[in-house]
Write a structure and sequence with these properties.
The protein is α/β, with parallel strands linked by helices. It has two domains: about 325 residues, TIM Barrel (Alpha-Beta Barrel), CATH 3.20.20.140; about 100 residues, no CATH class. It has 18 helices and 25 strands. Strands 1, 2, 3, 4, 5, 18, 23, 24 and 25 form a nine-stranded mixed beta sheet that branches. It has a six-stranded parallel beta sheet with strand order 9-10-11-12-13-17, with helices on both faces. Strand 1 and strand 2 form a beta hairpin. The longest helix has 16 residues. The protein starts with a strand and ends in a 16-residue tail after the last strand. The mean pLDDT is about 95. This is Amidohydrolase 3 domain-containing protein. Pfam families: Amidohydro_3. InterPro entries: Amidohydro_3 (IPR013108), Metal-dep_hydrolase_composite (IPR011059), Metal_Hydrolase (IPR032466), Metallo-dep_Hydrolases_sf (IPR050378).
């Protein structure tokens, strides 16, 4: 007697091989039969005419806190995701110390740098663990899908160095203590170590996040600890907007220090316009391979449609001369923006040459959300259009609108670079052996962008709309390739004995709903959200977590632990 049988679907198994019509029999969370399955089952899913694929894998998320208030990890499973990896960018919420100030610092840092509402972190997360082992045990009962976590460098520094984690290098004793904490976390099953030198990563006090104060030698020593544990890896952000030779050499040395374990760096965005630059940044892969290391670029298959605001200032603080202004309390920030001289200074500095200069093309920015009655009618229009109507310069028009909205106005670019030429450029990059599709950032920047739907949008854009790759290749890019990056055992492919993590969908209608704001976070804050089209069923360990396109109450997910679930 089978627990579940999935009948009559077209099996796209994740390997890239041609589809075949087959039934799947499931017992105790594993696929035990594949082909013509006549056995009776307690539960039957009719997949006739639909595709049955391995559950999609998202290897770069910030879903570290959300499971405590939303174990479904919504909306990711609605887009076919059955396994996620968190603890990225050096930001984990374990370990903690006995000093409440350290936990408070991590909360405020996440609120600032990853766009997680502070109220949600305060009200929705218990913060009652100390070790990584205790955190993993605390999170597991909540999970509808599988989740693995790395140990973040900034958390290690804060726990060991406390308030001195920003501002100086670690002493030898402090580095030894960090190594011991990392070793303990990896022994408990953490998937690896993460760190960041990204210039966009600043804490709530305006300082660089702790990992940015680390000397090169500190990174190398922590990576040596990773090499002590099988099935682990490294994630790292070099300085955003840069990929100079020193960064390529550093990432190679970090991988070598860990015994040649994979290091994935984030994030490679690809358009037809920047393809030459993207390929230049990809040189880290072959450079590392020639030296016995493994360095892999994570690329998001869609571009980030950023929604920025002067209230948070995130990303805007990367403009030359803007950091101090964007970190001011809101009332002080409003006074500064209302001052004509300060406004002119910011505008002039924004136009200076920098990797973020494109943000300052104010006339091209789209206004998304407004709140004041006098701003009615501006949503959905470009700043340039509204500025012409108001007879103002674009920057002045945008700032005046924001001031009327208490700085809450959201603006940016929605779905840029979606032409056939852009998709062709991306596909060539996806096929590179040193590139893996991922980098969704699900769980972070909740009101800024929504790339948690990259799985459905990849199939919708590259397969359905433009016909540039076949479905079998698309599924491979979303399943086996990610599983192999992290060494996930018996996941990412449909074969007898594999975990029954599955997604069932209509290949002719799979896609994403439009993004919209949903105020459902603890404390009442809003986030960007989108359901999917065409996905009927998602199974984790053989148990439906999505049925008929809606979430069930089942929680069959597990924590993915290194050495047990990875190799």
């Amino acid at each position: 007697m089978l627990d579940t049988v999935v009948r009559g679907g077209w099996v796209v198994d994740g390997t890239g091989a041609d589809r075949r019509r087959a039934d799947l029999g499931i017992v105790d969370g594993r696929i035990v039969a594949l082909g013509d399955v006549d056995d009776e089952a307690a539960h039957t899913i009719d997949a006739d005419g639909r595709v049955v694929a391995p559950g999609f894998i998202d290897v770069h998320t910030h879903l570290d806190a959300q499971p405590f208030w939303d174990g479904t990890l919504s909306p990711s499973p609605l887009h076919g995701v059955t396994s996620v990896v968190g603890g990225n960018c050096g930001f984990s919420i374990a370990p903690l110390s006995d000093d409440p100030a350290d936990g408070e610092y991590l909360m405020r840092m996440l609120a600032r740098v990853e766009g997680m509402p502070l109220e949600a972190l305060q009200e929705g997360v218990p913060w009652n663990w100390r070790t990584t082992a205790e955190y993993l045990d605390a999170i597991e009962p909540h999970l509808a899908v599988n989740a693995g976590y790395k140990v973040g460098h900034s958390a290690l520094r804060r726990v060991v160095m406390h308030e001195e984690c920003t501002g100086r290098e670690a002493t030898p004793d402090e580095l030894a203590a960090m190594c011991d904490l990392l070793r303990s976390g990896l022994a408990a099953g953490a998937l690896g170590f993460s760190s960041s030198w990204s210039r966009t990563h600043n804490d709530a006090d305006g300082h660089m996040v702790p990992s940015r104060y680390a000397h090169r030698d500190e990174l190398i020593e922590l990576c040596r600890v990773v090499g002590e544990f099988p099935g682990t890896g490294i994630e790292f952000l070099p300085m955003a907007g840069q990929h100079e030779d020193w960064a390529v050499e550093l990432m190679t040395d970090m991988s070598l220090a860990a015994g040649g374990r994979q290091l994935n760096w984030n994030v490679l965005t690809v358009t037809a316009r920047n393809l030459d630059d993207a390929r230049h940044r990809m040189r880290s892969g072959p450079y590392a391979a020639e030296r016995g290391a493994r360095v892999v670029a994570l690329t998001v298959p869609v571009t980030f449609g950023l929604r920025m605001s002067f209230a948070t200032g995130f990303i805007l603080d990367a403009l030359p001369g803007w950091e101090e202004a964007m970190l001011l309390p809101r009332e002080a920030k409003k006074r500064l923006l209302a001052d004509p001289e300060q406004r002119r200074r910011l505008e002039q500095q924004a136009q200076q040459d920098s990797p973020f200069r494109g943000l300052a093309k104010w006339e091209t920015q789209v206004i998304f959300d407004t709140f004041a009655p006098e701003n009615d009618g501006y949503s959905g229009r470009t700043v340039g259009d509204v500025a012409a109507e108001l007879d103002k310069e674009p920057f002045d028009a945008l700032v005046d609108i924001a001031l009327a909205d208490d700085l809450l106005t959201s603006f940016g670019r929605e779905d840029p670079f979606q032409s056939r030429e852009d998709w062709e450029a991306r596909i060539g990059v996806w096929r590179d052996e040193h590139v893996v599709v991922g980098a969704s950032d699900a769980g972070a920047h909740l009101d800024m962008f929504g790339t948690f739907n990259f799985t459905t949008r990849l199939i919708e854009g590259a397969v359905r709309e433009h016909g540039l790759i076949d479905l079998e290749e698309a599924v491979h890019l979303l399943t086996a390739k990610q599983a192999d990056l992290y060494g996930l055992v018996d996941r990412g492919r449909i074969t007898e004995g594999a975990h029954a993590d599955l997604v069932v969908f209509d290949e002719h209608s799979i896609g994403s709903d439009p993004l919209s704001l949903r105020a459902d976070l603890p404390g009442g804050a809003a986030r960007l959200y989108a359901g999917s089209t065409g996905i009927s069923d998602v199974l984790c360990a053989g148990v439906p977590v999505v049925s008929g396109g809606d979430f069930t109450d089942a929680r069959p997910g597990r924590v993915l632990r290194s050495g047990t679930d990875t190799r």
